[in-house]
Write the structure tokens for this entry.
Amino acid sequence: MRRHIGFSVFVAVLLAAALLQRPCHAEDSIERIAGPVGSPAGPYSRQLWWIPVKSNGETLLLETMIYSPAGPGPFPLAIISHGKPNPGSDTRSMRPGFEAPAHWFVDRGFVVAVPLRRGYGHSQGTVSDMVGTCATMDYVATAEKTALDIDGAIEYLTQHDDKISGQVVLVGHSHGGFGNLGVAANPPKGVMGIVNFAGGTGDWAGRLRRLILGRFCNGRQRLLAALEQLGRQNSLPQIWLYAQNDQTFDPE
């Protein structure tokens, strides 16, 4: 019973943390060098890292917050991936959130990475985690495109952080959860499984959604067909968690 209660609390804090990311505008003058910045701070060894990922022959650096247990390790790695705000939102105002769930994993012996994909926060590049316009959205390609930065974070951290064992669990919320399904179609070595919190994308109808429940970019059926295709390609154990009263991605 205690395990069930503890996991329910973890679900609650994860979703709350996703909603409580505090905005802070980006500055072009920030110095970025691949790897860690400064020294770990606080009881959870919080530390900023810049993670390099490849993009059309160039290297982009992703703003990433790392949390670590005490001791030399090696420890398994949990990567927590964020969602996607509505079109027109200031993606540069985002900061690595999910501090409470990061602490939850550290308390259980994980190193935790919370990267911001390219174009979000202080990460370099432009937002490129959607393929097509809302009217023409390709959901499978979108999952695969989102997976690129997650793959890059896995590759870099498992090779450059001595505290990491090489065993990886992927955690994602909303669009980040959907992107993890793209990773699962062709997972890098060491990825053991996925926890998907309200994973999905394409629900950007704004007020119209309240009138037409279930409206998604390029049609609800295309989203469902993409999930079916990604499921056929999947080779990893997954846990999907959706709330009964979720008005965006309902359990049905």
About this structure: The longest strand covers residues 58-67. The CA atoms of residues 131 and 142 lie 5 Å apart. Residues 18-26 have pLDDT under 50 and may be disordered. The two ends are 27 Å apart (CA to CA).
